[in-house]
Specification:
With 193 residues, the chain is α/β, with parallel strands linked by helices. The chain has 9 helices and 6 strands.
Length: 193
């Protein structure tokens, strides 16, 4: 079980000097070929961001890796502020402002002053909107996590899940021993039955 509560790789001098990227690549290489079940869990009030998410993403080894999150977590490759800076820039915010505010009665100078006054509030709303997409429910809907596991019952859940996954892998190995040429689909069908 990996308890994931990391902000990720910043790309600054400190991270480069500490060879964070290099060691992240070592982790990816190890997880890619791992032959036992790996559970990634973002704990209660935990946060998984950026390069940290990339290093332990279940798509690295979908047969062995599963990702779960507690009911109150945050996760995504970018922070909400970063998403706003990329997807909802100042010109887009000004267009939204034009749709929602009545500038027609104001002089051009008053319009400019009003836009300048309202811009921080609109930016905060945009950041809040982006933050609403960092919830476990959205992660589950986008299939980036397998399930939401409450912190209070996580120990029992993972103990039971590990027993099941080990039993499934034992069945797959047994199918491979009995039928050396069997496909993974055949082993998966034996597990499903």
């Amino acid at each position: 079980i990996i308890f994931a509560n990391w902000r990720g790789f910043a790309g600054g001098l400190r991270d480069m000097f500490g060879e964070v990227l290099k060691y992240g690549a070592y982790i990816v290489d190890a997880l890619r070929t791992f032959k036992q079940p790996v559970f990634v869990y973002v704990p209660y009030e935990g946060e998984l961001r950026g390069g940290a998410w990339v290093v332990i993403d279940p798509t690295i080894n979908p047969r062995m890796m599963e990702m779960y999150a507690a009911e109150v977590t945050k996760g995504g490759v970018l922070e909400p502020e970063g998403i706003v800076d990329i997807k909802f820039r100042t010109p887009d915010i000004l267009k939204a402002m034009e749709r929602n505010e009545n500038f027609a009665a104001l002089s051009p100078e008053e319009q400019s002053a009003k836009r300048k006054e309202l811009l921080p509030a609109y930016k905060r709303v945009a950041v809040q909107f982006a933050a609403m997409h960092d919830t476990p429910k959205v992660m589950l809907e986008k299939k980036t996590i397998t399930d939401i596991v409450p912190w209070a019952t996580s120990r029992q859940f993972f103990a039971q899940r590990l027993r099941r996954r080990l039993a499934e892998e034992a069945v797959r190995q047994r199918v491979a021993e009995i039928c050396p040429g069997a496909s993974t689909e055949m082993a998966d069908q034996a597990v499903a039955d």
